[in-house]
Amino acid sequence: MKPASGWLEALPADRLLAEFSLWSADLGRLADDIARVEPHVDMFHIDVADGHFSPALLYFPDLTAVVRKVTAKPLHVHLMTMDDILIDQIDQFAEAGADLISIHAENANADVALAHIAKLGLASGVVLQLHTPVAAAERFLDRIGILTLLGTLIGIKGVGLDDSALDRLREARKLIAAKAGHRIILASDGGNREHTVPNLRLAGAETIVMGSLAFGAPDLATRIDWVHGLTRED
Q1: pTM for the full model?
Q2: Are 206 and 176 in contact (CB under 8 A)?
């Protein structure tokens, strides 16, 4: 199962997108949990961490291939891996069914990695950690479809949004607006809670990576209606 070609450009631009993180899904009932939330999903987000670049150890290609079999929604794979395995990881997750692969601006071989993703015919993205200046993304903008700003320390679940997150989103929004040519979706990942998401949207987020906010919602349809209704600063 795969999304239709041109899926990235076809994502709604007039509302906040809902990107569901499978880190928060019930892995014991993964297919059932995906089916439960799928009507409300714009993209599924798959965090991949090698235990070195990031302290977490998350997702692997075979599990991603299982996800691919049960949904045609776009799969956004976020690679948090060391430079020496990055290209091999791109190949493995492309084969497993990724539609978009994001790598880190902090990877020394980020340029090579983005070229490799393009060669495989996939959409690409860049992710910035909190300590990386937003301006570091500028040189990648002509090659990516999504720019993700982490709002928390990498690979740590359940922590609060960093105080710098909103200003960083505003800066990134200006950077993207100054770059003509194609659509670049601005994403917020980490610290997305009921009390933070409205301000993240105001600051410029076009998609939010939702974990427990989605999978733990008592009424998911109502929560997604709320997400869709949030407005952005002019």
Answers
A1: 0.94
A2: no
- Selection from 105, 110, 23, 18 nearest residue 60 by Cα: 23
The catalytically annotated residue of 47, 83, 84, 225 is: 47
**Backbone angles phi and psi of 127, in degrees to 5:** -120, 140
Q: By CB neighbour count within 10 A (0-12 exposed, 13-18 middle, 19+ buried), where does 154 fall?
A: buried
Kindly compute the dihedral angle of the four CA atoms of residues 189, 82, 55, 155, in this order, to the nearest 10 degrees. Answer: 0
* Pick from 3, 25, 17: nearest CA to 211: 25
145 with 183: CB under 8 angstroms? yes
User: What's the pLDDT score for residue 206?
Assistant: 96
What percent of the chain is predicted at pLDDT more than 70? Answer: 97
User: Catalytic: which of 163, 189, 219, 225?
Assistant: 189
d(CA 186, CA 171): 11
- C-alpha separations of 13 from 9, 17, 181, 228 in Å: 9, 8, 16, 11
The rounded mean pLDDT for the chain is: 93
47 flagged as catalytic: yes
